[in-house]
Amino acid sequence: MSSVVLEPNPLREGLEQERVPDASCLVIFGASGDLTHRKLLPALYSLAHDGLLPAGQAIVGFARPEYTDEAFRAEIKAACNEFARTKPADDAIWQNFEKRLFYVQGSFTEPEGYNRLKQKLAECDTTFGTGGRRIYYLAVPPNFFPVIAELLGAEGMVADPERGGPYTRVIIEKPFGRDLESARELNRVAVTTFRERQVFRIDHYLGKETVQNLLVLRFANGFFEPFWNRQYIDHVQLTVAESIGVEKRGAYFEQAGIARDIIQNHMLQLVSLVAMEPPVAFEAEAVRDEKVKVIRALRDFPAGHECELSVRGQYTTGSVLGEAVPGYREEPDVAADSRTETFAAVKVFIDNWRWADVPFYLRAGKRLPKRVTDISIHFRPAPYPLFKKIQGGRTQPNVLSIRIQPDEGISLKFDSKVPGATIRTAPVTMEFRYATSFGAEPPEAYERLLLETMLGDSTLFARRDEVETAWAWLDPLLRAWQNSPEPPDPYPAGTWGPPAADAMIEREGRRWRRP
Ligand code: BG6
Could you tell me which of 345, 406, 368, 374 has the C-alpha nearest to residue 242? Predict the structure, then answer.
């Protein structure tokens, strides 16, 4: 096993300096919620810690509960101490950060709060030089999106980019609808107040370093791309496994299920990055044009036989990482006869020249044995088994495995001669680990995505047509599942899903890789 040594990179410092954006006012709608506490403010604090937040950046939390600025800051400091990558908060950095952190109380649905907010933002412009630049982060359930967009528009809080002047941007969180129709409606509402280029749809997988590295791996190296096609690749596997259950999100998950929660967005983003053609430039529209082509090329599920290319599962009581855990139907806010899937495996084809007839096997699930997101590219075997006579021809196919999380890295499995007087082969692995080569933890996805929004670069955000095309592909399967008389197959928590998921791939002479 060898590891990759990082070359000194003289460009790194320069790049970071170039990428410090102008200060703006970032308003977080839903500031009292979980996402704000666990992800957004810890990410902003870590950016400040690393010197990547512009000096005058103002952050205003907006939500219904009453807080003074002081109480809000104290709560956020505790959250940063617990959740920030750069925890615990450093006193000097925190003091500087909290001076620019405010709270405005208000209801999402009534104009009064928006007036108070407007006033606070104007004050920030004067005090911090934020120059009228606005970013609205909607960390709220999607049903609030239309009313917030409408009131922001009605209160004159959205600048039209066509007129020049300071920008207004809006960040929206998934879910972007629950089917094609609702996604279209959300997008329609979005463009009544904002133009598409003002809308940043967050899919936090795109902020993960390893996900971005897929593009670098494929397009910054001459080595991989010649093999990256149906001639050399037998099949591709993608696994998004989580050891956690639905936690306190039973009510949400009952309406979603794993296909809406993970496959429609995070997994299709991964598929499109693995399968896309080289973009003409590394810029938002060029990259997203290529990604959406992949999603458009996904083969439709055969009408009337949608369920044959998929397996649905639901966890029952079991044990995960040595701890006894309840079944899905025993979770809070979950119906005792729920038919919501907590696991899904789907076989997918991309009907284009590069990928014709190469299966992509996707699986995602809750309460699996461990948390791991992994993409593996399984190459075709060598064309002629030269060592057949010596050891029965059992050489192993090469596998390139891209570990998105945890232990981020890339490994390549190939056959090697076992030392000794006879020719015997055994699989060995060449490894690259982020932690070893770069000596640092990669930044949190939200850090990167917040910074990109401040910079106005939407390369790492989902475009309207991507979202809608993904729903158009998935909807028939969701409908077929819903209309099927069969419930999802049970699987004990702590296992790799129902046996049918193994059978699906094994009947084709392949096996799920155990990541
Ligand atoms: C979210 C889903 O989008 O992604 C959650 O709603 C899931 O259900 C989470 O747990 C997984 O994210 P990560 O970064 O932990 O892989």
Answer: 368
CB 19 within 8 A of CB 451: yes
Buried b (16+ CB within 10 A) or exposed e, 429-449: eebbebeeeeeeebbbbbbbb
Q: 31 and 146 share a domain?
A: yes
- Summarize the confidence of residues 329-356 as an average pLDDT: 98
Instruction: Tell me the CA–centroid distance for residue 280 and ligand 1, in Å.
Output: 31
242 lines ligand 1 (CB under 6 A): yes
Residue 5: inside a domain: no
pLDDT for 17? 44
In this model, does residue 14 exceed pLDDT 60? no
Q: Is the CB of 125 under 6 A from ligand 1?
A: no
Confidence band, pLDDT 50/70/90 cuts, at residue 175: confident
Same domain, 246 and 377: yes
Domain count, the chain: 2
Is the predicted pLDDT of residue 18 greater than 80, yes or no?
A: no
Tell me: do 312 and 437 sit in the same domain.
yes
Give me the CATH number covering residue 386: 3.30.360.10
State the average pLDDT over residues 468-497: 96
Domain assignment of residue 67, given as a range: 10-173
Q: Is any ligand 1 atom within 6 A of the Cβ of residue 209?
A: no
Residue 354 tokens read as 């590069």
List, edge to edge, every strand of the sheet that includes 58-63: 101-105, 58-63, 25-29, 134-138, 168-173, 199-202
Ligand 1 pocket test target in 204, 265, 405 with most atoms within 8 Å of CB: 204
For residues 482 and 407, membership in a common domain is answered with yes
Q: Quick check: CB of 408 below 6 Å from ligand 1?
A: no
Nearest-CA residue for ligand 1 atom 10 is: 242
Same domain, 29 and 148: yes
Closest ligand 1 atom to 265 CA: 3
Nearest CA to ligand 1 atom 13: 205
For the question of residue 37 being annotated catalytic, the response is no
Both 217 and 150 in one domain: the answer is no
Q: Is the pTM of this model over 0.90?
A: yes
Residue 252 CA: nearest ligand 1 atom is 6
pLDDT class of 485 with cuts at 50, 70, 90: very high
Residue 477 lies in a domain: yes
Residue of minimum CA distance from atom 5 in ligand 1: 261
> What is the distance in A from the centroid of ligand 1 to the CA of 38?
13
d(CA 198, CA 161): 8
The answer to whether the beta carbons of residues 337 and 466 sit under 8 Å apart is no
